[in-house]
Amino acid sequence: xxxxxxxxxxxxxxxxxxxxxxxxxxxxxxxxxxxxxxxxxxxxxxxxxxxxxxxxxxxxxxxxxxxxxxxxxxxxxxxxxxxxxxxxxxxxxxxxxxxxxxxxxxxxxxxxxxxxxxxxxxxxxxxxxxxxxxxxxxxxxxxxxxxxxxxxxxxxxxxxxxxxxxxxxxxxxxxxxxxxxxxxxxxxxxxxxxxxxxxxxxxxxxxxxxxxxxxxxxxxxxxxxxxxxxxxxxxxxxxxxxxxxxxxxxxxxxxxxxxxxxxxxxxxxxxxxxxxxxxxxxxxxxxxxxxxxxxxxxxxxxxxxxxxxxxxxxxxxxxxxxxxxxxxxxxxxxxxxxxxxxxxxxxxxxxxxxx
Length: 355
Ligand code: AMP
Ligand code: MG
Fold this sequence. Notes:
Blueprint: E1 3-7, H1 9-15, E2 31-40, E3 43-51, H2 54-75, H3 83-88, E4 97-98, H4 101-116, H5 126-138, H6 144-151, E5 159-162, E6 167-170, H7 183-197, E7 203-207, E8 210-213, E9 223-226, E10 240-243, E11 246-252, E12 257-260, E13 263-266, E14 269-270, E15 275-276, E16 281-287, H8 290-303, H9 305-313, E17 319-324, E18 331-334
Antiparallel strand pairs: 1-2, 2-3, 3-7, 4-6, 5-6, 7-8, 8-11, 9-10, 11-16, 12-13, 14-15, 16-17, 17-18
Helix pairs in contact: 2-7, 4-8, 7-8, 8-9
């Protein structure tokens, strides 16, 4: 597809007095921005990169998309052949199953976030997510007994990981793992790594609410990213931030929700109550990598601003913004490091992920 914007790298870099990092594009090269889009993991993914010509850009982008497709084949809970689905089917059988490196990385991080949030983040939430998906289709609240029954299959302590053997065991019957809150961020990281390996460090990969950025566009402080806005009257205007060598993720019921009897329920479920969130919030997290940004934004959504932002302060290199409307009033909160995030309109001198 190749949307392009011409750019004379050398001239502008010289005008701005920028040094050229060793090993990057040859200084005499004229770099052009190319953008490619493809549906992956059920959402539109976008790869933006600076390259000398369209053919090399397209080949690199194709490799990045192929990596995302490969990860979907591992981490999908829709595809019954995916490694994740196969693992879910072993639940309650007393079997520890060896898992591949990519899935292992994600499972380990997910369990870290569960432990740190005392179960607010929980990839064993699958059975509850399914119940709420059905509620959305039928426009009908799930029966309390049904939710209570599902709770028996949910809980991160029912997923046991053995690092020595790289195995996972699902301790209760009929468990179902759901990586919807963490896999897209990881896929962005992996796609970016593919681009970097192929010699395209100036790249941005995004899928739905998750994005990971490599080096900045030539002559820019970072990739310009507009932070999503809460979809209610009176919500603050969206900010534009500059991102480089870091990631950003947004989580909230703006994207997916169901309204039943005048109440709005999010696709994000509180595993401790079994209920879809109702506080109508939008959480944006900036982190050193996509997997962290993705998992943390969902975690903060469930924990709420007070405990959520505390967790952000305790997580090195991360910053967050929360906009919510739990009742009549709109609340707007930021973590301490959010102030250091370079924004359009200010003079960005720092990395978005300063500590
Ligand atoms: P995100 O858009 O990254 O916030 O992820 C939301 C998705 O994560 C949902 O559509 C579910 O698939 C899954 N999910 C819902 N609630 C939770 C939770 N409490 N912990 C982890 N994953 C969740
Ligand atoms: Mg997430």
